[in-house]
Design a protein that fits this description.
Elements (H helix, E strand, L loop, with lengths): L2 H16 L2 E9 L6 E11 L2 E10 L3 E6 L1 H12 L3 E8 L3 E6 L4 E6 L24 H5 L14 H21 L6 E7 L5 H13 L3 E8 L2 H13 L5 E5 L12 E5 L3 H14 L3 E5 L4 H6 L13 H22 L2 E7 L10 E7 L5 H13 L6 H7 L6
Parallel strand pairs: 8-9, 8-11, 9-10, 11-12
Antiparallel strand pairs: 1-2, 1-5, 2-3, 3-4, 5-6, 6-7, 12-14, 13-14
Helix pairs in contact: 1-2, 4-5, 7-11, 9-10
The structure holds S-adenosylmethionine (SAM).
The site of S-adenosylmethionine has 16 residues, from helix 5.
């Protein structure tokens, strides 16, 4: 191996030994994997001890793994020998830049960009339940290397905290908190920000043995989420590819469906009811099914001739009907404003806690309301009518 490369690997090992390692980046990849672009290395502390986290950036997704420090050194040597032409090592004493050419390599040593090690834990900002320095937030790109929330992720950050706060309140109210073990399914979990945060909160703040499964039809996202969960040693958190309508959910205590499209929200709610989930949390996205059928009653025809008002009425009716239908199955519901995201400006949140007897009268009232607005089909109503009522 070229002497400069050996020197660079030694600087990496020395920095680990001396506790001065900040981070390392491998780039300018010219190897045989057509999708691989960069690798980022960060030192993390897991329940099993000190590890090096490798975040592999492919063109369409990230994959995250952690390795013991000795193995990290071997892997670095292997990657420098298999196509990465450039690497930056940052320590609190020096920055090192390695450039590998066809015949030789150049190593530059300069003043350190970072004079302090990245903080592992951060003081939680006022009212925030989640630590912005959490490793999964870095891996998901919500916070930067130094554990600060990225400027363009502030809305997401607000949403994450609000979501955890809401679910925490529901866990208290429903009595699930006394169970000691809680299972949850997050349907249409996407990039998993909320799924990770809930797991982190339940396990690390509340000390609950949580088992959470994120489900989404996007295989690339599920692969990234699963790798981050493993790298963070979040043993009870897993992700799998699946369609909401067909997914096997078992019998979770909590069922979550946030910003899943149109009737996918109804499919998730129906699964929650069928599974007997104690808590259901949904943030409906679009409301196309009802919007397409809606025929305003005569007395509202003049008002609802305006498309914007018709649209809002479809939203109100869809979410209102969902709430009534859940109540007819023994859930107490609340609908309130959640924090909107880049996914959707819609920001209703519907939460339901199973704490009453089923009430067929409410289902009848919902059916009357549908008829009054010319709605012949609403997915949740259809799915619940095919399900036996359980107390
Ligand atoms: C707008 S994202 C929301 C992600 C996450 N729940 C959140 O609120 O941050 C919607 C996600 O739902 C997934 N999705 C929509 N319909 C689905 C379906 N029928 N089955 C599985 N996943 C679905 C999409 O792939 C996408 O990742």
């Amino acid at each position: 191996m070229n002497e400069r490369i050996t020197e660079f690997i030694r600087a990496f090992a020395d920095a680990l030994e001396a506790g001065t390692f900040v981070k390392l980046t491998l780039g300018n990849y010219k190897g045989t994997d057509e999708h691989l672009q960069k690798i980022f290395l960060r030192r993390i502390t897991t329940r099993k001890g000190e590890r090096m986290l490798f975040q592999y950036r492919y063109d369409m997704r990230d994959v995250v793994k952690n390795y013991e420090l000795d193995e990290a050194r071997e892997r670095l040597a292997k990657y420098l020998d298999s196509g990465f032409r450039n690497s930056h090592l940052f320590t609190t004493e020096n920055d090192f830049q390695l450039d590998i050419g066809k015949r030789n390599a150049r190593l530059n040593k300069g003043k350190p960009t970072f004079r302090k090690l990245p903080q592992k834990h951060h003081d939680r900002e006022k009212h925030h339940l989640i630590d912005p320095g959490s490793e999964y937030l870095r891996a998901l790109g919500v916070s930067s290397e130094d554990g600060k929330i990225r400027a363009d992720q502030r809305d997401k950050w607000k949403q994450i905290n609000k979501f955890v706060e809401v679910v925490d309140g529901l866990i208290e109210r429903s009595g699930l908190i006394g169970k000691g073990e809680i299972s949850a399914v997050d349907m249409g979990c996407g990039k998993g920000y909320l799924t990770f945060a809930l797991y982190d909160h339940l396990v690390n703040n509340r000390g609950i043995a949580a088992t959470i499964t994120g489900i989404d039809r996007r295989a690339d996202l599920m692969e990234t989420c699963e790798s981050i969960a493993k790298a963070c040693d979040f043993e009870g958190l897993n992700f799998r590819v699946g369609d909401i309508a067909g997914a096997e959910v078992g019998s979770p205590d909590i069922l979550i469906a946030l910003h899943a499209c149109d009737t996918a929200t109804d499919d998730a709610l129906a699964k929650g009811v069928a599974a007997g989930a104690t808590v259901i949390v949904a943030a409906p996205c679009c409301h196309q099914q009802v919007r397409k059928q809606l025929k305003p009653p005569t007395e509202l025809a003049e008002i609802l001739k305006h498309p914007v008002l018709l649209e809002r009425t479809a939203e109100t009716l869809t979410d209102g009907l969902r709430s009534m239908l859940l109540e007819s199955r023994g859930y107490a519901t609340k609908l309130f404003e959640f924090v909107a995201t880049e996914h959707t400006p819609k920001n209703n949140m519907l939460v339901a806690v199973k704490e009453r007897e089923p009430d067929a009268e409410i289902a009848n009232a919902a059916a009357e309301l549908m008829a009054r607005y010319g709605i012949t089909e609403q997915r949740l109503a259809t799915e619940l009518s095919a399900q036996a009522i359980s107390a």
